From TrEMBL:
Entry EC no(s): 7.1.1.2
Biological role: Core subunit of the mitochondrial membrane respiratory chain NADH dehydrogenase (Complex I) that is believed to belong to the minimal assembly required for catalysis. Complex I functions in the transfer of electrons from NADH to the respiratory chain. The immediate electron acceptor for the enzyme is believed to be ubiquinone.
Catalytic activity of the protein: a ubiquinone + NADH + 5 H(+)(in) = a ubiquinol + NAD(+) + 4 H(+)(out)
Upper lineage: Eukaryota, Metazoa, Ecdysozoa, Arthropoda, Hexapoda
TM spans (from-to): 7-36, 56-75, 87-107, 113-132, 139-162, 182-205, 217-236, 242-265, 274-296, 302-319, 331-350, 370-402, 423-446
Name of the protein in its database record: NADH-ubiquinone oxidoreductase chain 4
Length: 447
């Protein structure tokens, strides 16, 4: 574990050299590939120390973090072309990668909490430093206050665990149901539900996405939303006793909320806002799957988290490519793009198809498993899930058809059809998303 940590730390001095963008991008690709081949073949912990360790769920999310961080740098070429604090931008990206790596590999609850909160600071800098509108300050404050205030009860719960057991190691917590009370359960769970986010505590997410630069949107949708799901998967061995009692509350709230958010998506005219609300709808199914505490629910939630990380990040890249050319994210202006950028329309179609869980994407595997687990938990959920699946496809088709078809806005001038860098960026989102389903046993048989 330490060799990858040192690799990332030693990348930071390169940020001060002008023109080191391609070098850092190449080295981040290198570390991603090296980490990919350090797969823990046996389904147990590897690289275990006093602070860090890695099992299969950590491995998948660390690899996703490294991959998305590389693509963040690749997508932010406009920052380096304009030399707008590009060195500091690279430093923030590497710091964020370090924080995420440490979060997913922590085996102690307190170190997990510190890195979990620490990952918000570089994200806050990304939104404030390279956001587009003056409202980015308000969006950054929303992000910090929602997540930090919800996490304070989690800190109290962690200290209570230490006071009761004398240890914060995740191995010591498994099967220790004696210290659980209703208040402790709510303290431990609520912070992760806000991070995912669950309906009714999701207001920080659309504003953060709309005001963030493309790199901020990519890491926010790709990895930071998965911190909540990862936290729930880690603490539920302790909380299973109350999880069975209160699961019905969270499942009902998340699925009905996901249905409401799907209807919101049908009314959006802003590209980024629509993709952000679709993230809330997808995460509602992940919350429902985890709260069933069933084998298929938990495994399929992990598969959908990884799939959604790649798919939503790719959609944010596409919206940014459009925004850089036309200066607007409105669907009223960005219509008829298939006439202006026909080669980019293919990528819109491929990533939109993945977003609605079309085969052979990993989204299909995750959603089929989640549908099975939720209907097995209660057949009454079938009615909500039918509408949730229908509207998920409906708003994705709405996004694709309104942006690609129709009349061209009369105020548009000629623009470039796309650069090789952009096609590479979109390919590196789409290809792993459809390749991982070939080794589906890794995604769904890790428990």
């Amino acid at each position: 574990m330490l060799k990858f940590l040192c690799f990332l730390i030693f990348l930071t001095p390169l940020c001060i050299f002008p023109g080191s963008w391609w070098l850092i991008c190449s080295l981040l690709f290198l570390i991603s590939f090296v980490y990919m081949f350090s797969f823990p073949y046996f389904f147990c912990w590897s690289g275990l120390g006093y602070i860090f360790g890695c099992d299969l769920i950590s491995y998948g999310l660390i690899l996703l973090s490294l991959w998305i961080c590389v693509l963040m740098v690749l997508a932010s070429e406009s920052i380096f072309r304009s030399s707008y604090f590009s060195g500091f931008f690279l430093f923030v990206v590497i710091a964020l990668t370090l924080m995420l790596y440490c979060t997913f590999s922590s085996i102690g609850l307190l170190s997990f909490y510190v890195f979990f909160e620490g990952s918000l600071i570089p994200t806050f800098f990304l939104i404030l430093g390279w956001g587009y509108q003056p409202e980015r300050v308000q969006a950054g404050v929303y992000l910090l206050f929602y997540t930090l205030l919800a996490s304070l009860p989690l800190l109290v719960g962690i200290l209570f665990v230490y006071n009761s057991l004398g240890s914060l190691c995740l191995f010591m917590l498994c099967g220790n149901g004696s210290l659980v009370s209703v208040l402790f359960y709510v303290c431990m769970v609520f912070a992760f539900l806000v991070s995912m986010p669950m309906f009714m505590v999701h207001l920080w997410l659309p504003s953060a996405h709309v005001e963030a630069p493309v790199s901020g949107s990519m890491i926010l949708a790709g990895v930071l939303l998965k911190l909540g799901g990862y936290g729930l998967l880690r603490v539920f061995p302790v909380l299973y006793k109350f999880g069975f009692k209160f699961g019905v509350v969270w499942i009902s709230l998340s699925l009905v909320g996901g249905l409401c958010v799907s209807l919101f998506c049908m009314r959006q005219t802003d590209l980024k806002s629509l993709i952000a609300y679709s993230s809330v709808a997808h995460m509602s199914m992940v919350i429902g799957g985890i709260m069933t505490l069933s084998y298929w629910g938990v495994c399929s939630s992990f598969a959908l988290m990884v799939a959604h990380g790649l798919c939503s990040s790719g959609l944010f890249c596409l919206s940014n490519i459009t925004y850089e050319r036309f200066g607007s994210r409105s669907l009223l202006i960005n219509s008829g793009l298939i006439n202006l950028m026909p080669s980019m329309a293919m990528w819109w179609f491929l990533l939109s198809a993945c977003n609605m869980a079309a085969p052979p994407s990993l989204n299909l595997l995750g959603e089929i498993g989640l549908l099975s687990s939720l209907i097995a938990w209660s057949w009454c959920l079938m009615f909500v899930l039918v509408f949730l699946s229908f509207f998920s496809a409906a708003y994705t088709l709405y996004l694709y058809s309104y942006s690609q078809h129709g009349f061209i806005y009369s105020g548009l001038y000629s623009c470039s059809l796309g650069h090789v860098r952009e096609f590479l960026l979109l390919f590196l989102h789409w290809f792993p998303l459809n390749l991982v389903i070939l080794s589906a046993d890794i995604a769904v048989f890790w428990v």
